[in-house]
Amino acid sequence: MGPTLSSLRSQWPHPPPREPVSGRSERQHDPKPQDLRSFIEPLITSFASEIGYSPLKTTSNDDLWKAMRTYADSTGVPCKDGTHSWLMFKVCFPHHPFEVQLYIWIYSWLGLLLDDEAAEYLEDFSMFHERFCADE
After folding, report:
1. Is residue 112 part of a domain?
2. Overall domain count for the chain
3. How far is it, in rounded angstroms, from Cα 71 to Cα 74?
4. Is residue 96, in this structure, part of any structural domain at all?
5. Residue 74 resides in a domain
């Protein structure tokens, strides 16, 4: 499995400990930012500005749900309100373009169902990837 962590410590030199400043018995630590957000936010904002990033626009959920439901109904996979399938139906990424949301939703919904239900329906799910890619 490789060397243990304790044996790796000897491979890298350690900086010598700082001597206490005269008149002080404890080591002084560098000050740390009190608020992580106030430290990171300007860095991220500056970086996003430099690369020309602009936030994605969201799509109306009504259009997305209708398209998702149309696809779900065509698969024959039950998707009634309150079922496990319905919960998986609601998984998608809201800040992508509509076509990307729909594709992500289809694959996520079916993938989550497979992951959660495969043990019960192993025979039915064994060829999922081949059938999905063949658009069956």
Report:
1. yes
2. 1
3. 5
4. yes
5. yes
- Residue 75 included in any domain: yes
Identify residue 90 by its one-letter amino acid code.
Answer: K
What is the pTM for the complete model shown? 0.32
> Of 34, 51, 54, which is closest to residue 43 (Cα–Cα)?
51
Residue range 69-119, pLDDT digits in tens = 788 788 887 777 778 777 766 665 566 777 877 788 788 777 877 788 778
What angle in degrees, to the nearest 10, is found between the helix axes of 61-75 and 98-117?
50
Find, among 74, 72, 78, the residue nearest to 92 by Cα. 72
Domain that holds residue 69: 61-133
Token pair 């992580």: residue: 36
